[in-house]
Amino acid sequence: MYLSPVSIGGQKFNFDLDTGSSDLWVFSNKLPASIQRKHKSNGGKIYTPGPTAKNANGLTWSITYVDNSGASGTVVTDNVKIGGITVKKQAVEVASRISAMFEDFEGDGLLVSPTKQQTWFENAMSQLQSKLFTADLNQQSAGSYGWGYINSIYSKKIAYAKIRNTGWWHVDAGGGIRVNGKLTTTGASYTAGAVPDTGTTLLLLPNSLVKLYYASVPKAQYSSEAGAWVYPCTPQGFPNLPPLSIPVGKSWATIPGKYLTYAYANSAGTSCFGGLQGLSDSSDLPFIYGDIFFKANFAVFDYGNKRFGFAQKR
């Protein structure tokens, strides 16, 4: 998980900037005391509405995620600052209930940038040089988000895809995958597209495509115990897997094999947990391009031109 410093009403927090959701919510003093204590003991911080916070006419909120985790509470407006950019009177969802899955959450909340409603990013756009932001996330080291500009290292290498008119960062992604540069497909059309999602850790594709990829990984198998695809690690650590290319509009984004192992699957370090995992083969489910994608690719979320762009990192 990648966490970024965010200030709300002058109070400092670490947030998961999530492009795949639509809520800015924060752990607050409205949560049960036991949950507040647990969050603080894990290094987290609790938001207490201060003098700059105003109740938003009794509004309430509730959200449930794909994994059935969720949260709910009330709404205030407050000043929200990221980097050098402050949005005044930004709607902030104050959590008074969180599901058990969030009790061990490393961050203090989620801040997102979809296109479905007035978010912090949309309210901040008047202060930006261009109506876009970028994600430059790294493997096992700090990354960065850029607001209103594109790093010149990548500006001439970016391939763009138009985002669908669904209110989300949602692009076309049909035709299968490429393994070691070779097109591999099941013949299905995969019309649901893909969502580039900084709030998801793994790369999630339909089970049928995932199975085709792991056919190229020696001794890879689906483990019912782990609930995931696993394969042998090497004595030196993570194996170098075959490169995977995935569709983004009419282009292909390549993920080198060194990024495709997520973690060790056992304490002995002999089994590895794949960074590519499966979704239902339902035609209604989009591919989810999580942090595995962003480790290998610089990404541009171009709100002004309604497009998503990427460039493979050096």
Automatic annotation (TrEMBL):
GO molecular function: aspartic-type endopeptidase activity
Descriptive protein name: Peptidase A1 domain-containing protein
Cross-referenced PROSITE patterns: ASP_PROTEASE, PEPTIDASE_A1
Family: Belongs to the peptidase A1 family.
InterPro entries in alphabetical order: Aspartic_peptidase_A1, Aspartic_peptidase_AS, Aspergillopepsin-like_cat_dom, PEPTIDASE_A1, Peptidase_aspartic_dom_sf
Active site (catalytic residues): 18, 197
Domain Peptidase A1 intervals: 2-311
Keywords: Aspartyl protease, Hydrolase, Protease
UniProt-listed GO biological process terms: proteolysis
TM region positions: none
